[in-house]
Amino acid sequence: MESNSAISLVLPLLLLVSSGIAKTVTYDFNVGWVTAQPDGFSRPTIGINGQWPIPPITAAIGDKVVVHVQNDLGNQTTSLHFHGLYQNGTAHMDGPVGVSQCSIPIGGSFVYEFQIDQPGTYWYHSHDSGQYPDGLRGPLIIRDPDSPYKDQYDEEIVLTLSDWYHDQMPGLLSRFISYANPTGAEPVPDSALMNETQDLKINVEPGRTYMFRVINIAAFAAQYLWFEGHTMRIVEVDGIYTEEAEADMIYLTAAQRYSVLVTAKNESSANFAIIGSMDQDLFDVVPENLNPNVTGWLVYDKAAPLPTPALIESFEPFDDFTLIPYDHEPIFDNVDYSFNLDVKMDNLGDGANYAFFNDLTYVRPKVPTLYSALTSGNMATDAAIYGDNTIPFILEKNKVVEIVLNNMDPGKHPFHLHGHAFQTVVRSAEETGVYVNNETFPEFPMRRDTVMVRPNGNMVLRFRADNP
Asked: Any residues with CB less than 8 A from the CB of 319 and at least 6 apart, and which?
């Protein structure tokens, strides 16, 4: 059965032709419960306007986006975060509860309004109490009439990867952060999805080139992705255009995005599998009945069989650290601030396992951090007013910040920076230990807003603090 998701997420090239006139793009979202069964198991799911999967948000450079959100869940608060948009000048529209806003209360509403000044592949999701894996997650695509790759493909296709749980988040999170789970073993997903479904079929035509905007909207699971019989050409990561790079397989940790060009074969006698495979290294225990894979197909001929994916001996994804930004932004070599963040997982007195930066675990403040900054006058630059457990750093505008991220844990961990993209200056191998300043830095570091640090490894990240 062909997925409605695939049809609704295909963006014809015609849409990329800009009229040159910025416009206001308005969405009216009623957030409420629906029933869905993307893997055959029926469960309550958070939808929008009575539908799930939720609709994509699309806009173009220069547009103003207005999103009216009505919380009709009846039993939970909510919010929306527009993942990867810098929100420069509109930080109060970013969405994280406790950081830039309060929750949207049950029966309440909120209007998000912001200007679009960056192209690329993004997503939007709830940013309230780990809620989005229950369904409130979807693509956000910003079109660019001046894209350096606009003449190299015929059609866009949005392809989301995700994990799926049969239990709802409140119960899962309660059991996860509990004395009954002292090792902090994360809940293992029940299945993997592609465009929030399984057995996805994507119709393609011989000789045409497609730009796949790939988004991992998962709660936890990273995924490997490959197209059997086809090569990908990477042209964007996390909203940053890159020099073209060929890849047979890519790896997306939760929240990462890629745009890849895939050219269809010149003949149409066979169909080809698309495979997403969850990274089982992330799971403390792999259930015997877990299928870590999700399969879709490039369909050249609807009458031809859909092939079973071939077995592979090992996962060998493209190393995104080697990507070069298209704009050749040079490395920030005059660092004004350098902070060490040592990451570990440990137990507190309640017996539960928590994540720590520098021996502190985050506690959400009662007053959102942004509200405190805007209402504290001269005291806004005093880190103490934000509370020790928000782990605050006070920065001067336009200074260069270096984060030395030491992973003291044997697991892989993704990290996302709101409001900026990192220059990835160093990424060590596994089991390297803490950073000791012994690396050769790239001339034009890869930039993205979500990175993955390897087990017991380290990363050095730089950005300019230009988004107060």
From this structure: none
Q: What is the pTM of this model?
A: 0.95
Q: How is 154-211 classified by DSSP, letter by letter?
A: SEEEEEEEEEE-SS-HHHHHHHHSSTT-TT-PPPPPSEEEETTBSSEEEE--TT-EEE
- Identify the three-state secondary structure at position 322: helix
Give the separation between CA 276 and CA 194, rounded to whole angstroms: 8
Going by DSSP bridges, is the β-strand pair 337-347/400-407 parallel, antiparallel, or unpaired?
parallel
Separation in Å, CA 256 to CA 162, 198, 277, 280, 328: 11, 21, 15, 18, 21
Provide long-range contacts, Cβ within 8 A and 24+ apart, for 324-328: 324/242, 324/243, 324/444, 324/446, 325/240, 325/241, 325/242, 325/243, 325/444, 325/445, 325/446, 325/447, 326/148, 326/240, 326/241, 326/242, 326/243, 327/241, 328/444
* pLDDT tens digits in sequence order for the chain, 468 residues long: 334 433 334 444 334 344 457 899 999 999 999 999 999 999 999 999 999 999 999 999 999 999 999 999 999 999 999 999 999 999 999 999 999 999 999 999 999 999 999 999 999 999 999 999 999 999 999 999 999 999 999 999 999 999 999 999 999 999 999 999 999 999 999 999 999 999 999 999 999 999 999 999 999 999 999 999 999 999 999 999 999 999 999 999 999 999 999 999 998 899 999 999 999 999 999 999 999 999 999 999 999 999 999 999 999 999 999 999 999 999 999 999 999 999 999 999 999 999 999 999 999 999 999 999 999 999 999 999 999 899 999 999 999 999 999 999 999 999 999 999 999 999 999 999 999 987 889 999 999 999 999 999 999 999 999 999
Distance CA 258, CA 237 (A): 5
